[in-house]
Every structure is written in structure tokens, then in C-alpha cells.
Protein: ferric-chelate reductase (NADPH)
Organism: Trichophyton verrucosum
Amino acid sequence: MRSSLLLAPLLAGLAAAAYDKESSHHEEGPHIMTPQEVYDEKVARYYILSGGSVFAVILVWSAVIRMSAHIRRLTSLSNDTQRYFITAHSFWAWMKRHVMYAPLLWKRHNREYRLSTALNMGTLPTRFHTVLLLMVVGSNAYLCLHKLPFSSPEKEFLPSIRKRTGTMATVNLIPLVLMAGRNNPLIKLLDVSFDTWNLLHRWLGRIVVLESLAHTICWMVGKVHTDGWTDLRESLGSSNSILTGIVATVCVVVISLHSVSVLRHAFYETFLHFHIVLVIVFLAFTWIHLVGYSQLKYLLGAILLWAFERAWRIVTIVYRNFLRGNTTATIEALPGEAMRVTLRVARPWTFRPGQHLYLYIPSVGWWTSHPFSVAWSDTEESDTDEKGLVMTKQDVLGLQHPTMSLVIRRRTGMTNKLYEKATENGATSVTLSAMVEGPYGAEHVLDSYGSVVLFAAGVGISHHVSYVRHLVAGFADGTVATRRLTLVWVIQSPEHLEWIRPWMTSILSMNRRREVLRIMLFITRPRNTKEIHSPSTTVQMFPGKPDIGTILDGEIEKQVGAMGVMVCGTGSLSDEIRFACRQRQTPTHVDFIEECFTW
């Protein structure tokens, strides 16, 4: 964010000055469009319209799914068997097994390909994502070549493909910017996760790079072919439009090179700031390059989207953290190099399960933020004033402080610095000034499922705790369809139970909890067998790793209504559960939901 704030005014001034300078070179009037350029505009409009149509179809599909889930919940509130919703529809079962949930190859999807512990090559998309990517790539390739004069001489063909690829590259900037934003409105509107938009953003970025290169190379080849290398060099020095176009192309190529998975994962914070700087430079020089051309309106749309999203984030941070006091974070060091972070937000929001926020700790890194799932939301109360006198109920209500809590595992970068702060000088906790940005996330509503199975590994439990609390309370109140709720948590040591102990104590004391909730704890690295003991029949501990297939088969035998299976954990665990759910699509209704954050 700091990079954009510092560079934006400078480059905006550069663009304005260049605009005035370039305008002086067009005294003869605005650029007159050729018939080919007019057709290119039609192609651009067709591309935008077709993209809008795809979004409309997904919107209708999402609305139908939401309505079906709502109806299922309402009809199941007073039905303890929910037999009608157990059976799977044969077509959708086939689609989920072979397309929607299926990885591109074999079983591996969320587990990353690594050359070493430091070299992360990324993940493979699902088959459904692959279909979407092929549609995007195919439509761009088709429209870049549609009705071009292939049989014409080189001096006519090269300008035609140069203009078409330049137009398509500029038009693609609008969805490219939209898909990258944290505040992308399509996340909630279409119920499509940020991960999916991020995947599309990366591939659309590669398409823009290829189209920009084709645009530039076609100009260079045509120029050399007709006028020679000498005139090409002179054009770079005499034409603002050409020089800025070359600089913009170089910027977008550098963006693609430094965004490869290996560099992105190894140096994420450096990548992020460098990425923002390069994007600003690219947009500024592309603006100068397009002055006087009709494509400028598409670039303007992309710039407005980018600027609005950034401005909205700043407004959100100020609104949440400064207008009613300050936000603080209490970081408590826990066993297993984890931290429980309790946030007292100046202006909190009504928390819903599945939401996450971005956390800033200025004393650790002023411009560094990371996403974390909100595990718990509560209210702190004080029943005495500073002098120790008992307060009235009205006074107590006035001093209630809503809090939100996170569980964070110590890694590198920001989380390592946080852990060091919490354990500095032998301490176990520290309170720091903080800022939060949120809420974010496509919230998965589980209220319509008669049976819910939640799998978590390590700190992935932070995503599930809020769902457990919500569904147990909903069962007691009769507001959810859930009649069976199973939580499976895989941890390395019993010490890790301390991460969520206060929250789990609260859940275990909830009304009618024993009737709906079962907890299975798997300890993969116990020091001795004495550590493994089950407190009750509803809270059980086991050594080793879980047998996913056996657990799901046991749940299916006792299934009530439709079943929702959600996972938040390691890539290997997610892939194993994905495979098990695919194999069990018939005859019962099983939905698979994966919560992850890829970058």
C-alpha cells in the first residue's frame, strides 16, 4: 500500500504532463479510425459482452444453488430423518466426481509441487478450473485472429494483428484488475472463492503479456521490414507513444517473470511490493501510449477499478481502527510455536463463520498484512471501575469490548517476528497496536446439511471452530438442519489442544451439545501412549493419522439428510478427502468444500 501511495501522485503527474505534450503533436485533430480499427472495437465489445454473459450464467447457477439450500434447510427444521435429501442426483453426482471436484490429473490438486523445501512450483487446477481457463485462452486466441487479412501482404497483415492484440491486451486489463482485488464484489455475488479469482488473474495476466509482446513485436518487425533498424531506433527517440509503449511492454514482461511460483512463494512480501510498483508504472506508461486512441477508455476503466479498490481498503482500515479509539492485539505464545491473537477492534463487525481478515501490526511491519481466519468472536466485560467499586448494569454494558481471536502458527516473516515479540525477555504474551481489514471471504453456509463433517489439520482448526459453535447453537435453537456434526482434528502433539482450549471448553458446555457433536482427535506424534486417552464417548483421541475413507463410510451409514464435508488443512489432507468424497458421490448426497488460500 505504501508503494502505491508514494508512486501514484508522481506517475499521475507524469501521465498528465505527457498527455499535454502528446496533445500538442496532434494539431491535425484526433486519430481517425480505419475500418480495421472499427472492427477491432466491435471485437472488444463482443468480448466484454461474452464475458458478462458467462458471469450472468454463473450468477443464475449460484442463485439456484442458494435457493435450493435455503429450501432444504426450511423443510428439514422439523424433520429429524431428512430422507428425501440423502439420495444423490445421478447427473450432479457424475459432474462432481469427474468435473467439479476432480483434479486435472489423478488425485493431486492442493498439495504443492516442490523441487525442495524452498522451491514451490505451485498446484494443479481442477478439471472445472481447467475448462474455465481453456475458455479464456481459447476466446482470446480466436478473437485475436478473427477476420484478419492473412492473405494480404506483410505490410497490411502485421499492422492488423498489431492493433488487434493491442486492443485485446487493453480490454483484458479490466477483468485482470477486478480479479486481483480483495474487495472483488463477484466473490460474494457469485459465491466464487478468492482462490479461483486469483487463479484466473494469474492466467489472464499471462495472456496480457503474450498479447502485449505480440503487439510490440509486430510493430518492430513491420518497422524494420519497411524502414530498417536505423528508423526504428530514431522512432524510439522521437515518438512519445512508441517509447512509452516499449516501456509498458517491458514492465508487463518483468511482472510476469517475477510472479512465477518459485519467486512468489520464496519472497512473497518483496514480490507483493515490487508487483504494485510495476503495476503503477505499467498503467502510467500505457496511459501515455494510448493518448488519442479509442482503447484509452478500457485502460481508464481498469485504472478506476484499481484506484477505487485501493481507496476502499484505506477507508475500511480507517473506519475499523481509528474512528472509535484504537485496535490492539494481544499475542499469547502457545505450545508448538503457535500464537493465540485476541483483537480488540475499535469498530468490530457482526462476525459470521468462515470469514477472515487481514492483520497489520505496525511495530512488526507497517505495510505488511496477512490473511487469517477468525476462530472466535466474544465480548469482554468489566464489572468494576478503576477504584474497584461495583458498577451498574448500564455501566457494564457501556464497557463491553467485542473481541475477535485468531490462531497463528509461527513460520517466517511476520509470524516469526510476532512470536519473538510475544516471547521477548521470557514473557509469554504482549499487547501491540494493530489494524484489521475485513471482513473477507466467500462464506460457506452449512445450515442446510443434515450431516456435517469437518476435517482440520494444525491451525486449520481456526476456520472450523466458529462453524462448530454456530451449528451446535443452531441445533439447540432449532434453526439449522444439522443433526450430526463430526469434527476431525489432526495434530502432532496433545500440547496443541491448548490452542483452542478456552473455546472448546465453551462449546462442550453448550446446551444439547452431546446430541449432535462428536469430536475425533488424531495425534500423529505422541511422546507415549499414556497421552492418548478419550475423555468421553463424544470426545475421542486416537494415535496416528485418520483413515479418511473409514471415517466417511461410518458417517454415511448414519447419514441424516445431505452431507457437507469441509476441510481446512495441509494440501495432502485436502487431496485425500477430496478423493474420498469423489468416490462416494453415489448413492448418497455428499458435497465437498475446501477452504484454502493459495498465492
